[in-house]
Write a structure and sequence with these properties.
The protein is mainly alpha-helical. It is built from four helices and no strands. The radius of gyration is 16 Å and the shape is elongated.
């Protein structure tokens, strides 16, 4: 059983992944969210930076404050799933930053 803080972090990461999928899906379907490519790009870059900050904060927490739990994370499936979820969240944030930057550069 996971502590409630860990469950909350998993829920936040899943919510951020969902938000990234919705943002990029709406951009590909509607071509613009606000009618202004500059504003679409700024929103994408800022939201992508926030999404990337969550897995980065988890990595810093793991490396500096929970040094001895790294072996526990890599030894079981739940730990590997946690790492995969963080990697997927980071990747989705990076894609949002890239999408937003392309909107800014296309202007």
């Amino acid at each position: 059983m996971m502590p409630t803080g860990q469950q909350r972090k998993i829920a936040i990461l899943c919510l951020l992944i969902f938000f990234a999928f919705v943002y990029m899906g709406l951009l590909s379907w509607m071509k613009t969210l606000t009618g202004n490519p500059l504003l679409d790009g700024v929103v994408g870059v800022l939201a992508g930076l926030y999404i990337c900050s969550q897995p980065a904060a988890n990595a810093v927490d793991l490396l500096f404050f929970q040094r001895f739990s790294i072996q526990q994370l890599t030894s079981g499936w739940s730990g590997l799933r946690w790492l995969a979820l963080n990697l997927l969240t980071f990747l989705m944030g990076w894609l949002m930053i890239t999408t937003g930057a392309m909107r800014l550069a296309a202007r």
